Amino acid sequence: MEKRYTLGEFEETVLLVVAAQDGEAYGLSITKVIEDELGRSVNMSSVHTALYRLQEKGYVKSDMGDPSDRRGGRRKRIFVITSAGKSALLEAKQHRQYLWSKIPGYVFGGEKS
Amino acid sequence: MSTDPHIQPPGLARKLFQWYCSDPLKEEIAGDLEERFLDHVETHGLHKARRNYWLNVFKFFRWHTLKRQRSKSYTHNNISMFKNYFKIALRSAIKQKAFSLINLSGLAVGLTSFMLILLYVQHQLSFDQFHEHKERVFRVHDGDVAITANAMAPTIQRAYEAEVEDIARLVFMGSQFFQVNGENYSEEVLFTDPGFFNVFTFPLLEGNAEKALSQPNSMVFSQSAALKHFGTVNILGELFEMEGRKYQVTGVMKDLPNNSRLQFEFVAGLKDLTWTHEETWSNRSYYTYLLLADGVNQADFFEKAEGTIAEAYGTPASSQGGVHIYFQQLNEIYLQKDWKLDYEPMKMGDISYVYIFTGIAGLILLIACVNYINLSTSRSLDRAREVGLRKVVGAIRGQLIWQFLSESFLFVFGAIILSIGIGYGVIPYFEQLSGAAIDATRLFETNFLLAMLGLGLIITFLAGFYPALMLSNFKPVEVLKGSFRRSGKGSRLRQVLVVFQFSISIFLLVATLVVYKQLNFIQNKKLGYDREQVLSFVMDETLKEKRDVLRTRLEANPNVSAVSFSSHVPVNIGSANGLHVGPTEDDWELIYFMHADKNLLELLDIELLTGEGLETRAALFKYDNDMAVKPTFIVNRATIAVFNWSPEEAIGKNIRISGIDAPIQGVVENFHYRSMQQRIEPFVILHDPDRFYQVVVKVSGQQVKETLSFIEDEVADMSPSLPLNMTFLDDRFNRLYRFETQLGEVFLTFAAIAILIACLGMLGLISFVAVNRAKEIGIRKVLGASIATIMALLSKDFLKLVGISLLLALPLGYYLMSGWLQDYAYSVTLSADLAVIAAVSALVITMVTISYQALKTAFINPARVLRND
């Protein structure tokens, strides 16, 4: 059976941030990016849940990072995208580009040809 | 930043998070939470940051973050582990035989008590529940006495033919003389309507239930009566004589179950008694039962019927006005609480007895559980190493909890098996104690055993859970290093438990003392008459006619000091007339009466206050008031108190009893003619020789036995067919207080059991303390403490516990028992002496319990305990 890459919209966002923050991504950092840079309000716990779901699907893998003072001496769990994750993202991107290309130009303000 | 002690996330929220979050996720999430918190402190300030922290903690409450039992990892090995647990439990039980025995016997004693009481309560609640129509059968009464006039049932039946399916009036006639195959017997016979076997469910082995009583002179025997008189149950159509008339056996019924309130061996038709033929409202000797048809609105029916009866009652000349009638459902008569009716024919249960028993059963079981907890935890040191080692080789806490629970399981079920055995053995004693007949085979019924299984599981958890938690909690490092000391926490709990046990025991002790004191009071109270060496028996017609001859013949013996005749004897006077106390027909009170001959007052030593006694003036009293001589009354002090007369004033005043006006000729001092629970009510002594049924004899001298056989011989000579049944007034008096006597015995027994179990708990505690404080005591001895000082030191703590228990239990006991005493019109007052007795005995019992261990500890050689350090 052909492998289907299923990605929810929020999961895709989270996975994109993980890829963007290559090697630095953990729960809070991703939350911050979504909140501050995308201007979307989001729960830490939702991000956390999404990360674990991604991990179950095999799109990210994780490892414990270094402890820091700011966290009361606790370590962070660093999430890294896997090749399966990359494929899923690519597929999602291709689907979109394909669909974008199908949109007639005038829909977004161009002249009707 | 996080080093600043003021800038911290809320502690409670943090704890909440730690509690719910699963371990692998804890670190990362907690880290994120704290980092976020610090961010928020910078951007929004501390207050808002803390609020957001709380919010985030709640938001992280999700399925994948929760702690979950991941049991998959060790299921495969469970069965063999449980086998191992049982093996270890057995080994450690055998290793400490004395301890195991104490523990097991505590549980077994508690469980035995509980089981027996359970059977008793079940038995009491099952009374009269076997009647098929129990929900539709009602007994009619007027609120005062259980008997009604014989017109009651037919009147209701005629008025409501559709609603009343059947009726049964019951009359019990004692001492009916039977002649079966030439042999004489005296038996009690129940006379009733033909519908009896329809109303009640008493199955017949032989004969037809519908027709058994329809013919005159037919009688139904019980199975055992048939066997007794004929030697077989195939006796249909057999002939015999009763009271000189030919009778035929028309049925044999199965023996009545012991949870039937009605108990009888012979049933005959009511029509056989000629005096019952006329329907009157004045002869009240009948227990009236109605079987209502299916689907009758009962409440409506009762109201209608009461109206009908009041109407019917209004016309005949009756001294009692204002009719109320009440309906009692058949299966609720036995344990009912609302009515204290006179003339209850058969044994009555007492719902308060059921409550008391149930309460005690619960307490005893609780004490037994507490005892188990106490003893198991006190032994923790022995098991601590085992627990430590098990943990080191990989046991997790859950497994250890299961281990100790299975150990409790073993103990509890061992105790259950033991107590079924003990229960079987002591049921005869318990029957005596409770006054209820309990079938021993009930102990082995499936339902009962299943209930015991359930109970066992409950007790296993109740008693085993805390010890399991505590024992499984040891830290292996501490335990194995040898520096392990028991924490003070556990011993505090044990102290509370011992106080609890002792409070209950002391409470039961106080209850016992109060009951016995009241009983003693009743038995020694001046009754107003002399009951020593007074005996009575019932006359038959032959003796009645030759009364005076009998008197002369009996009085010829120097050991018979007086012979008298009467209608009743003081301990069971129940019959009452109406005494008019006001101008209208409705102003009347019950007045109890007794017919007596001239010398009864003297024989019973009833004190005459003023006026004339029966010796000097015995005016004939008849209810049909057409005689030449006007009757006169001798009344008691309570009667004239109704009219506010002094004894002197009362003489010659006219009062009206049962519609007859007559003057008072004498006043006697009050005497207790009924139970001590009842106040002394108005009483009148009348004189009608036709109503003398009893012979009252006062004997004197030491040769009571000889005197009794002399009386027997004389009576047999005069009336050979009379089965003589002499009873002493004393015995009958004591029978009145059977309930109190039983209550006393019940409390005594269970107080003893409770104290026994509590002492076992105390024993557990002292042995725990003795081991725990061995070193301290060794050091004290080295420094010069004497044996006495050490004994005092060890006992002090225990006496303190007993003191606390006394403080708790004594007021409670006094409070509850004074409530009980309020049931009595005449009762003892509760004074300090009981408290002193209870306190002293509690202290003595404590000292005896602990002294052995305390002495052993005090005498210990300090070198032995201190050598190792």
Q: Can you walk me through this structure?
A:
The complex is a heterodimer of chains A (113) and B (869). Chain A has four helices and two strands; from the N terminus they run αααββα. Chain A has 113 residues and is an alpha+beta fold. Chain A has a two-stranded antiparallel ribbon with strand order 1-2. In chain A, strand 1 (60-68) and strand 2 (74-81) form a beta hairpin. In chain A, helix 1 (9-20) packs across helix 3, helix 1 crosses helix 4 (83-101) and helix 2 crosses helix 3 (44-57). The longest helix of chain A is centred in the last third of the chain and has 19 residues, at 83-101. Chain A starts with 8 loop residues before the first helix and ends in a 12-residue tail after the last helix. With 869 residues, chain B is an alpha+beta fold. Chain B is built from 27 helices and 22 strands. Chain B has a six-stranded mixed barrel with strand order 3-4-9-6-8-7. In chain B, strand 18 and strand 19 form a beta hairpin. In chain B, helix 6 (152-159) packs across helix 9 (298-314). The two termini of chain B are 48 Å apart. Residues 315-321 of chain B have low confidence and may be disordered. The interface between A and B is medium-sized, with 22 and 20 residues.
Sum this structure up briefly:
The complex is a heterodimer of chains A (113) and B (869). Chain A contains 4 helices and 2 strands; from the N terminus they run αααββα. Chain A has helices at 9-20, 27-37, 44-57, 83-101; strands spanning 60-68, 74-81.
Key traits:
heterodimer; A: 113 residues; alpha+beta; two-stranded antiparallel ribbon; 50% helix; B: 869 residues; six-stranded mixed beta barrel; six-stranded mixed β-barrel; elongated
Share of helical residues of chain B: 40-55%
Name the beta content range of chain A: 15-25%
What is the radius of gyration of chain A computed over CA atoms, rounded to a whole number of angstroms?
Answer: 17 Å
Biggest sheet of chain A: strands, sense, closure?
2 strands, antiparallel
Rough shape of chain A? elongated
Number of helices of chain A: 4
Q: Please tell me the overall pLDDT of chain A.
A: 85
Widest sheet, order of strands of chain B: 3-4-9-6-8-7
